[in-house]
Amino acid sequence: AQSVTQPDIHITVSEGASLELRCNYSYGATPYLFWYVQSPGQGLQLLLKYFSGDTLVQGIKGFEAEFKRSQSSFNLRKPSVHWSDAAEYFCAVGARAAGNKLTFGGGTRVLVKP
Amino acid sequence: NAGVTQTPKFQVLKTGQSMTLQCAQDMNHNSMYWYRQDPGMGLRLIYYSASEGTTDKGEVPNGYNVSRLNKREFSLRLESAAPSQTSVYFCASSSPRGSGGNTEAFFGQGTRLTVV
Questions:
Q1: Chain B residues 19-38 within an 8 A CB cutoff of chain A
Q2: Nearest Cα to A42, choosing from B105, B2, B37, B1?
């Protein structure tokens, strides 16, 4: 069965500083990987996705993520954080063989200090 | 563009009451999902429907039933609500990406359910 671990429950970062959120997955074949963001009281918005090809993927809002098969990781990064990036971030893994269902990590809540 | 629409947005139930959460998508997606979100636990899959006419259990199906009414609609029913079912419920939809796997899931705005 597929699974996702986000080791950091909370991260506090200063505005303008860099941000990295960790994600580790477990899946027996090539995974399809996603990062979603959720602002308070809102639904989930897709930041970026990896299906195949280039292991460094660019997303919206200046985010990028790198797929590292050897480490089973898909970490999310942003070079300079803005106050509006305060939200909860979810990593997810999906695959066609699993009936198209997505499995989510527990989430990382990001707080941005002025 | 409506995307994924869930109703209601908020609901308070008494223990033992029943209710149905409605979900509809207008993106012609094959697959639909119901998740629940609880603090610190991310989103956990309750049931999913890979295509019209099929439904399968997810990670936490106990106490719930689903109906894939047609390609657009996927409802979630609580037959006898319990306080442990207090949560935020999200419906989502997606479609296979050619022969290579699923596209991203699109989510509704959620239903905040409280069972007292």
A1: 30-31, 33, 35
A2: B37
Mean pLDDT of A10-37: 93
pLDDT of B101: 45
Structure-token pair, residue B55 = 């439904």
Distance from CA of B50 to the nearest CA of A (A): 6
End-to-end CA gap in chain B: 35
Contacts 24+ apart (CB under 8 A), B62-65: B64/B34
Model pLDDT, residue A42? 84
* A42 vs B: CB within 8 A: yes
**What is the identity of the amino acid at A81?**
V
Burial of B116 (0-12, 13-18, 19+ CB in 10 A): exposed
Contact A43 B110 (CB under 8 A): yes
Query: Rg of chain B's alpha carbons, rounded to an integer?
Result: 14
How far apart, in whole angstroms, are the C-alpha atoms of residue A65 and residue B114? 36
> Taking CB atoms and an 8 Å limit, are A102 and B33 in contact across chains?
yes
- Closest CA–CA distance from residue B80 to any residue of chain A (Å): 26
3-state secondary structure of A54: coil
CA distance A36 to A57: 14
